Amino acid sequence: MKGRACPEKPMLRGQKNPERNPNREPEALSRALLRWYDQVRRDLPFRRTRDPYAIWVSEVMLQQTQVSTVVPYFERWMQRFPSVNALAAASEDEVLHAWQGLGYYSRARSLRRAAQSIVERFEGKLPNGVADLLSLPGIGPYSAGAIASIAFGERTPVVDGNVVRVLSRLFALRGDPAKTPLKALLWQKAGELVPKVRPGDFNQALMELGATLCTPQQPSCEACPWARTCQAHALGLSEELPELAKRAAVTNVRMAAALILFRERVAVVKLEADANRWGGMWQFPNVELEARETANAGAERAGRTLAGIDAQAKASLPSVKHAVTRFRITLEAVCCVASAGKTSAGVGVERVVWKRADELSEIAMPAAHRRLARSLETWLAQADVRKARKRSAGS
Ligand code: SF4
Predict the structure, then answer these.
(1) Are residues 256 and 383 in the same domain?
(2) How remote is the CA of residue 38 from the centroid of ligand 1, in Å?
(3) Which of 240, 270, 305 represents a domain boundary (last residue)?
(4) Of 61, 360, 368, 369, whose CA is between 20 and 30 Å from 223?
(5) What spacing in Å lies between the alpha carbon of 163 and ligand 1's midpoint?
(6) What is residue 267's three-state secondary structure?
(7) What is the pTM of this model?
(8) Please, which residues have CB within 8 angstroms of residue 296's CB and are 6 or more apart in sequence?
(9) CA 181, 185, 187: angle at the middle one, nearest 5?
(10) Shared-domain flag, residues 199 and 67
């Protein structure tokens, strides 16, 4: 059953009313949620600290990324950049190197720029008000609310994808939650629920409820602390809400990456920060393949146009599959040999350098290219074995 966006008067199935009205008892709801959270909360490194900087870093890492992936990155990050000042003083390459594999690299660049701004404007201490937090690069309403409530105990809401799902169901709200008026109403409802005491814990509990029980499919309502109040549960609408807009169709993309060798070194390019894909990261020259273009031809074109290198395709390496947003990328890897070591950065390329294969681990590469780098090392090691065998057979 689909209805027009009319969140204050939701279209309900109307078979059964919930026992309680969620609009009338915000305090009881927040108490029940905190009781549940105290029993089930996961012990995570960023929950053992009140350091605003650590909380900020964890909140940025957790956007679009699962908790289990974030934990080791967070721990390494805090060792490498233990304070705002340490992050502000780091180079962009160092920061991206620590972030590599987490994806969405603009988050890492914004963290560093925001750290520099905090040093300049706030003496290296994260500001504690939402308005000041919002003035920093990369900090939007979600991050500002999370930092202000978790680190500083400010009574302010957060609304992320999990919260949208839980509140759309609790209040049985129809409409597209990414658009007004429902978007604004969700922030308002979240704000009404945040208690004066433990606002940060409440916000984390709400997100935890969405991540663990109030899941997109088959929510575990029987274990939910809000089951007796939840309107969607009572009315059999849980799996219909929220009414998210249809996702853009998946687009398959074929790309070729050139692993160009010259005198035991391989060429890598660093794209400008605002490049569409993998901006600011080191990578093998790569292009999207045109219709009917072979991987070999594409790799040679990538070398020529991005790095100014004339190279000939010699061997295929295993291709790498990579998904980012709606794109499913197949990256065909081709080993090429250059006729000369001269390079010239193409349009959108900041730098081109030659590196030994064992030096590639020192530069920041996106996960897909890191896998190509490992393939290259294996391929070179096998080539050495083949050469040694040939020599011994000839002697
Ligand atoms: S009762 Fe079910 S649908 Fe409602 S908030 Fe809890 S888990 Fe979500």
Answers:
(1) yes
(2) 18
(3) 240
(4) 61
(5) 11
(6) strand
(7) 0.85
(8) 256, 313, 316, 334
(9) 125
(10) yes
Pocket test for ligand 1, best of 230, 231, 237 (most atoms within 8 A of CB): 230
Domain of 374: which CATH number? 3.90.79.10
Query: Which residues have any ligand 1 atom within 6 Å of their CB?
Result: 166, 169-170, 213-214, 219, 221, 224, 226-227, 230, 232-233, 238
d(CA 44, CA 82): 17
Phi, psi values for residue 323, rounded to 5°: -115, 130
Per-residue pLDDT 10s for the chain (395 aa) are 333 333 444 444 444 555 667 777 899 999 999 999 999 999 999 999 999 999 999 999 999 899 999 999 999 999 999 999 999 999 999 999 999 999 999 999 999 999 999 999 999 999 999 999 999 999 999 999 999 999 999 999 999 999 999 999 999 999 999 999 999 999 999 999 999 999 999 999 999 999 999 999 999 999 999 999 999 999 999 999 999 998 889 999 999 999 999 999 999 999 999 998 899 999 999 999 999 999 999 999 999 999 999 999 999 999 999 998 899 999 999 999 999 999 999 999 999 999 999 999 999 999 999 999 999 999 998 888 888 788 887 76
The parent domain of residue 372 ranges over: 251-394
- List the one residue out of 304, 319, 314, 322 whose CA is nearest residue 367: 322
Domain count, the chain: 2
Burial class (CB in 10 A: 0-12, 13-18, 19+), 64: exposed
Q: If you take atom 8 of ligand 1, which residue's CA is the nearest one?
A: 214
Which of 37, 224, 229, 231 has most ligand 1 atoms within 8 Å of its beta carbon, as the pocket-test mutant? 224
Q: Same structural domain for residues 159 and 40?
A: yes
* Catalytically active residues, by annotation: 59
The closest alpha carbon to 115, from 92, 88, 82, 155, belongs to 88
Distance from Cα 225 to the centre of ligand 1, integer Å: 8
User: 170 CA to middle of ligand 1, Å?
Assistant: 7
136 contacts 114 by C-beta, under 8 angstroms? yes
Q: Are 327 and 278 in contact (CB under 8 A)?
A: no
Residues 234 and 255 occupy one common structural domain: no
